[in-house]
Amino acid sequence: MSKRVRTSLPDDEYLCLIGQLAYMVTSMEGLLIFDLPGLKAYLPDDLSPEALAGKTTGVIGQRLVKDGERIVDDDVRRYIRTGGQHLEAVSEIRNHMLHSRPATIEGAQVLYRWRPATNDYFAITNDWLQNQIDQIEKLMIELTSLRPLHKHAAFKDA
């Protein structure tokens, strides 16, 4: 445990998986946002880090998909739109985790997703977290394979 608190917490492995998943989502977000200045020559003027700062992952994803339609360059459009689609997907995963509540399931303290309106009822188990981390990793690998570094100002002539 990195910091002792009075709140009852699950085991360290579980907490580590939660942190890893959350960090991976923000890492994907950061990659896309911080690539925008280097790809500025190919982007609509209103698509910038400043325009996306403070927005939720899902909103950033929607914006990248929508604004990506206006990008003329095929490589940059593919990267930005795919990134937006991936952010939309990972925001759903992360939201399941972050909007869950603690519960005791089969003697273990875990998060439990409970949304009666959409019929979402499930435990956020170690297996669930590991499967989602694997899914996010696959999306990140695909996204980085599409990254147009040959058009990115920071990597030209490097």
Overview in brief:
It is built from 5 helices and 3 strands. With 158 residues, the chain is mainly alpha-helical.
Q: What's the SSE blueprint?
A:
Layout: H1 12-35, H2 49-52, H3 57-68, H4 74-98, E1 101-105, E2 108-115, E3 120-124, H5 126-146
Antiparallel strand pairs: 1-2, 2-3
Helix pairs in contact: 1-4, 1-5, 3-4, 4-5
Total of domains: 1
- Number of H- or I-type helical stretches: 5
CA gyration radius, whole angstroms: 18 Å
- Spatial order of the strands forming the largest sheet: 1-2-3
Number of strands: 3
- Mean pLDDT over the full residue set: 95
| H-E order | HHHHEEEH
Low-confidence stretches: none
Largest sheet: 3 strands, antiparallel
The portion of residues assigned to helices is: 40-55%
How would you describe what is shown here?
This protein has 158 residues and is mostly helical. The chain has one domain. The chain has helices at residues 12-35, 49-52, 57-68, 74-98, 126-146, and strands at residues 101-105, 108-115, 120-124. Strands 1-2-3 form a three-stranded antiparallel β-sheet. β2 (108-115) and β3 form a beta hairpin. The longest helix is centred in the middle third of the chain and has 25 residues, at 74-98.
What labels would you give this structure?
158 residues, mainly alpha, three-stranded antiparallel sheet, 5 helices, 3 strands, elongated
